[in-house]
């Protein structure tokens, strides 16, 4: 028996028994109280009278009445730019040692402040994730194995009084000392800035590691596994890491990647979804009998929900000032919401850009359904990324292909709008009726799309291309690896530039 692993598993069971799941509504009210109390003497707290809010009969309602909704541009222009200039006590007490650079799928890269309190929050959320492993029936020796955390480089950029990098790199640079023996690829390899070189070193060192779990964005995990398999002349990754049992996904929906990832495995893994963003660790899957993630309701983040309807959003994809905003206890299940967060990094009623659906209110479980700016509604389609992912899964089954990536835009053709898709797959299908099949799947899934197809949306075109072309585009115009994600929806001008680049690859 793996004695150490058995002790760790028993400790997890005992800790989980002692620390039962909190009541979500009660925990959220307490989190908001703590946030307001700690930030009441900051410039932001004084401007929006946090002290008065704390003494009101209903602090949640008073908070929502006093503080406006912010997107990144507004919060940065009004407040956060002072932080980059070295000012302190602006939106959170003190200053910060780090800024997280977002992947910027919908805009240019953003610099999100990361306070010491946020780093502590991320660590505590990570412990909650580890504690939930007791629900997944893993063997004792799993807890002795190493963890491959494939994120961005831990070689951070020094800027005056702070450092900058992606949140995965910042988190890895601050892992606890006790965890470093489990962490791979280790700080030396994780410091390599060039993605291809970093993956090459991982492939070279892989035979000496005993990896039990993987963590990272699916597309980059898949690319890394392919390189390890090719370099070491393996059939599957289990030939070199036989104890690999768990994959902790994050950043994007995992399901579109499952089919292609499992071709690299000798057997399926236990898949656990997480929701770590540049703004904080928001949710994690805590049980195996669901694909939903539980919001971390008791750890420095207060959540709010705006019904995702045309009436509540402006043309730029921002929440309108008069839109109704609900706390968790007032929100409903199975409704698309724009997610707002207030955090221990000094984000206040901040529109993170994601849309979510509450699937189990009692457990505070959600699914990510898309992005506010990755919602295709140019001519009334009203398609969410969640519905697009479901349609892609149907195509995978129908045509027996793997579709890790895709992108769509409404473009004009002969003076009228069509939806044009590029689908990144493991094989091309030049003669297959992919576009009609995709069109039919979306019409079945979305009545608004079906109506649009009879009126303003005059056609659907789809081209299946090698998925490697998506990754070459990402390397050229964004960057490869880490937190970088492929956008699902593009504006017409951006899409035409993307199309021109794809065609240039031949």
From TrEMBL:
Tell me the ranges covered by the GH3 middle domain, including all copies.
295-361
InterPro entries, alphabetized: GH3, GH3_C, GH3_M
Q: Which GO terms describe its molecular function?
A: acid-amino acid ligase activity
Q: Which GO terms describe its cellular component?
A: cytoplasm
Domain GH3 C-terminal, chain residue ranges per copy: 387-492
Put simply, this protein is called GH3 auxin-responsive promoter
Which species is listed as the source?
Fibrella aestuarina BUZ 2
